[in-house]
């Protein structure tokens, strides 16, 4: 018998039991709509399923029953006891058909015309009185039998001390006379539902109470129900816990005996060990189900989608037999279905599109499951269009998931992962298949909930592959045992990617950026956390010397390294929840007992990931106070690249909108300028070295600078790094395109004059406004800063933002402008300046007779202590902004100007 | 005071006596599940100071509470002898680390007195009264209050 049919039988049998109980209640209270609806739905389900399975007799009977029920439901007929009996009769009939179906695998021969005729007559409102007596007798039989059943059980209860179980067993025994052995287990499982006593215990009557009506052929149901039983998951859970304990105790015993050379325990212990292992397997097996169970509905879903959206889709499923924990299976069912829908709806192109691309007409979705080192890997791959990087990027920016400066530094794969961010659906339109707000973030959350991870790889026009990695079971996890602060801790292996040894005799060293530790790992910087420090050890360790272990972990797409003192082996552990008093500590997800009997805390990777982001905030505060101590040591994020020569060049990252790689083939030459189609318009590409030239083939790295309407691409040979360093431009250069040289990461680096290149590409970049009549509305800004670099950086930036900028290098110079009667809409001034500092300057500006007295005045500084802010307010500054916070500066300027216009 | 009256239900109560920092305490016999020598305690970083750590008591993970710290007494020297009583409360197992365990005493109500009003606040919070023994005083440890962390913290 195939799976579907047996599942149908089991389920229908249960449903019928429920209906029986409901019907009886319904007869007593014919006005209860809710009950009627329930019954109607159940009969309807039976009808539908029978139709699907090709069981015409059952379907017809259910159909006519449904018609009658429908009339009751709609109020077209009133419910009479005779009608109820008729319904009961047809249910019994259905049961007898089912019984035959179960034993023979086919519907019995014969005709149901008589019953159908009766149902039809009843539906037509002409229930013959002649039907009633027969019906009543059926009904009373029901009651009698039920009464007997409870009597039997209560008798038994009197006779034996044991309550509930025994009685129920007896009762079931009576009901299933002929039932075979396995049924011994049944009472435990179904007792609560079936026992009449339970009903009286104020349980809602929806319980299939007194559930065994005298169905014809009931006793000769060999009953599939009895070969598989439903056991509450809690019971299995308890079993599992106990077995886990047993395993641990056995391990302890084994360890003890191993230390003695000759022990009489050895033999028995070996047997105990084997039995325990088998028991563990068996218990695990009770929780295991083939993953194919979760996939059963998928072919149908795909078929429907392929018709809805006119795509030809081939669903390939591999590894259906891969077994995993029932609980895990339940939890991944919905995410999987969702992802398959996604692949079909968004992943694959429509047939015409595929033909146009020269791909095979038939789109393919491959679903694969397999075991890999204690985990189940599920892959969902489509050969569709791949993810649209640009669209995701835009969405991420508009959602504020990432800042523009960050996005430029991200790889394509990192950008793709944004689809797992909350509230992120790039589906332009909502189809009835997907895009209804149940996004990939829900999928990710569900998977992470069970300790799994999800990853994706997407290639344009090649397709997208999602990889889900989930633990085989939730009960036992594999963990890496590490040491920190002389204590041992367990880290769930799932979060661990690799182990790296740093320091002496290793290729890796830990480096420091302003007390933040990082590790250079395969050309990427890995943020490091010291487990000792995370766990509250006060002393700051010197990580740069000596040898350390770094556990590289990934949580929720965030990769980081955890510095530990020592790494031991991996061990299978049983996660136990921590005591209530310790539950507040986010760093631990549980604790466990190791093979040697000691208790060990289990590190929660999520807790650490959270801590990292917290520390980042803290670090910033620290940075600020440090800065207060060492005045004006501003750090600037710089993009380091190579162009023309080997000497590194740098440009402030805050000016760069994006980093792109452009296919050289797409670069065209027109009128002596190199142009490329970029986001629907033409972008001029200029090489960052006056004598350099673009690549002749392959992909050309380009730094993109954008203002509202235009983009300029600065072609470079190679993007080297992004550094965050104090920038000190030492040798001012007169070479065009170069501001000067500075030491970046210990190397002399040319700082590029971005403004120069902008005017190279568009001679009118900064002064095209006049011809657009914006000039009149353009606000003027006076920028006072002693640092040439900042002047050179901020001026173009403010220009781009639409202001007319006058830059001066000292407060004296600025005040000189005042003497000459210049007026500005706003003044931005640095605070730390040689000679007259910002505070004095502000006081001068605010002097009573000054014609600048009403001009909004913004302080620009690396110092951001409250005292400083207070002092700047006292001095007369309107507001205060951090020097390297470009977006905020622009926002504040806008705000200050608006306020002053309103005031005027 | 109603708490204390509830606490002392019968005329004669049995107490396990223990010493913490030289003071004699009594814990109702019914609430003590185990007496054991605490070793191999695993410290729990970031936890509150009175939590000595977690330990394995016959396959069960038990939270160890250092009674001295909890009562604001001097810290135990590492070589000093210690014992622990296993107490179960609301489904959680605790091991209260004390200096030593003495005999079990049957004490009558006529020897009982409520807490002296000048008793230290922290002690008031965990004491359910005092018995006048012949040679010394026995403080009745109110297990429930002793192990209710939120409350004691705010009281202390």
Distance between the termini of chain A: 87 Å
Q: Mind summarizing the main beta sheet of chain B?
A: 6 strands, mixed
Class by helix and strand content of chain A? alpha+beta
| Count of DSSP-assigned helices of chain A | 27
Percent helix of chain A:
40-55%
Assess the beta-strand content of chain B as a share of residues. Answer: 35-45%
Give the termini separation of chain B: 19 Å
**Spatial shape of chain B:** globular
Q: Poorly predicted ranges of chain A (pLDDT <50, ≥5 residues)?
A: 128-225, 428-437, 617-634, 768-776
The overall pLDDT of chain A, averaged over residues, is 73
Provide the β-strand percentage band of chain A: 15-25%
User: Percentage of helical residues of chain B?
Assistant: 10-25%
Order of helices and strands of chain B: HEEEEEHEEEEHEEHH
Taking the sheet with the most strands of chain A, its summary is: 6 strands, mixed
| Apparent shape of chain A | globular
Oligomer: heterodimer
Q: What is the mean pLDDT of chain B?
A: 83
Our count of helices of chain B gives 5
Structural summary, described in words:
The complex is a heterodimer of chains A (904) and B (156). By secondary structure, chain A is of the alpha+beta class. Chain A has a 6-stranded mixed β-sheet with strand order 10-14-15-13-12-11. A 6-stranded mixed β-sheet of chain A has the order 27-19-20-30-29-28, with helices on one face. The longest helix of chain A has 29 residues, at 131-159. Chain A starts with a helix and ends with a helix. In chain B, the strands form 2 sheets. Chain B has a 6-stranded mixed β-sheet with strand order 8-1-2-11-10-9. Chain B has a 5-stranded mixed β-sheet with strand order 3-6-7-5-4.
